[in-house]
Amino acid sequence: MAAPAAATAVAVNGAVKVASQAYLESKAVKDTRVLISDLCRQFYNLGWVSGTGGSITIKVHDDSIPKSQQLVLMSPSGVQKERMEPEDMYVLASNGSILSSPSPKPYPNKAPKCSDCAPLFLKAYEMRNAGAVIHSHGIESCLVTMINPLSKEFRITHMEMIKGIQGHGYYDELVVPIIENTAYENQLTDSLAKAIEAYPKTTAVLVRNHGIYIWGESWISAKTQAECYHYLFDAAIKLHQLGLDWSTPEHGPVQNVKGILGSNRNINTSVKATVKDSNDIGALPRCIVLDIEGTTTPISFVADVLFPYARDNVGRHLTTTYETVETQDDIKLLRSQVEEDLAQGVNGSVPIPPDDAGKEEVVAALVANVEAMIRADRKITALKQLQGHIWRTGFENNELEGVVFDDVPEALEKWHCLGVKVYIYSSGSRLAQRLIFGKTNYGDLRKYLSGFFDTTVGNKKETNSYIEISQSLGVDKPSEVLFITDVLQEAVAAKGAGLEVAISIRPGNASLPENHGFKTINSFSEI
């Protein structure tokens, strides 16, 4: 009877329409109901679904219809998972619509409610064609995200149980993305989807201070991997307690250093799960000088967020603050630059009328010049100083937030704890630099920075600028300073001053010519 009943489930406009109650009562659906209740009792005993937390969902396996159209069974929310019965499960179509709900139970049981995890489960089905998804609140999956609150990944290698994770072997590095928790489970959907997209090899996503979502092509695959993940998390926690580094092949001791606030913290200073080669950076330098655009921060943030904001708000800013000493100083600097540009025939330059011509005319001319400077991406102090003041307003009004790559906060904290002084050198003004790092997607990072340099020390493509910087840092020789940039000409200039140099390879950065001769890094974790 099961096969004919299954045939009544047909696709309509991309969704599943169940035309017969017989399919909902088929053996395949009943067996899956029993399976989920059995697994939830097992998971309760493992500590994965205690306190009504956690959940599981399984697709009904039926060879007579495409996997994408098979029904989805899901445990309910807010119930004691170890006491669930087969009839307590929800049945959903592949598009997420509920086809069958459990009947209410008498007091003290709560009214039935579909799992709060449903949107996240459906994302795993949609994006990974999963056959089952497990959500665990196991304490191991929670604690392992708390060891380093800045880390966006869990990494481990050279552990036998890695072989139980789909697509991995003993020598491979297992990487599990970590997303931040939210007040309500369904609010995690977007960040889970982004993590799944960003990590095409992963079969799990950790939620900080919360738990983990794990999927597989079948319930057996999902369960097997869940057991392996929890084993590996538990191993990492125990290794951490022993002062050992779980992320490296040898699992040797981590370096214990005095961390921030005077507490002792284990800082992992190794290059994770890799063997050093000639391209790796050697011993940590005394000072590190960082470029921003394309190094700590995506080029797209500067080009698509900061520059347009300054361009779109320059008129409003100048008009609103025209009489202030600060803006009058900005205008004086711009006048001087425009006069020089006009004398040299710089394209886009227009004369700025005298102050007695009236505020509106002066502002209009300033706006025209600033827009031309931004279009030409000019690295001049007059423009950078004004942009910094405009951006300050944007940050103060919560209209702007700085963006850094995921590996940057962890690296800054590590270098800080190891006593390495870190500086910023950017064509943006020092004010703009402080704004970007003072309010980022990872909070205020300025506590890890020792100072800021801008073009007042010189052009970033000139060797003298780096000589000036190295002489300001109190090092015995320039080679004790490491400069990281994405621009080859800047690297050449810094090398000419005797600095150690590495070129940052980030998404969106310009490609490098062959045989450029510089060390390259894809992440600050390689330092």
Q: How are the elements arranged and paired?
A:
Elements: H1 2-6, E1 9-12, E2 15-18, H2 21-24, H3 27-45, E3 55-59, E4 72-74, E5 90-92, E6 98-100, H4 118-128, E7 132-136, H5 139-143, E8 153-157, E9 173-179, H6 189-198, E10 204-207, E11 211-216, H7 219-241, E12 255-258, E13 264-267, E14 287-290, H8 299-321, H9 325-344, H10 359-375, H11 381-396, H12 407-417, E15 421-425, H13 430-438, E16 451-453, H14 463-472, E17 481-485, H15 488-496, E18 500-504, E19 519-521
Parallel strand pairs: 9-10, 14-15, 14-17, 15-16, 17-18, 18-19
Antiparallel strand pairs: 1-2, 3-4, 3-7, 4-5, 5-6, 7-11, 8-9, 10-11, 12-13
Q: Can you describe what's shown?
A:
The protein has 527 residues and is α/β, with parallel strands linked by helices. Helices cover 36% and strands 16% of the residues. The protein is built from 15 helices and 19 strands. The strands form four sheets. A nine-stranded mixed β-sheet has the order 6-5-4-3-7-11-10-9-8, sandwiched between helices. It has a six-stranded parallel β-sheet with strand order 16-15-14-17-18-19, sandwiched between helices. Strands 1-2 form a two-stranded antiparallel sheet. A hairpin with a 5-residue loop joins strand 5 and strand 6. It starts with a helix and ends in a 6-residue tail after the last strand. The model is unreliable at 1-19 and 255-282 (pLDDT under 50).
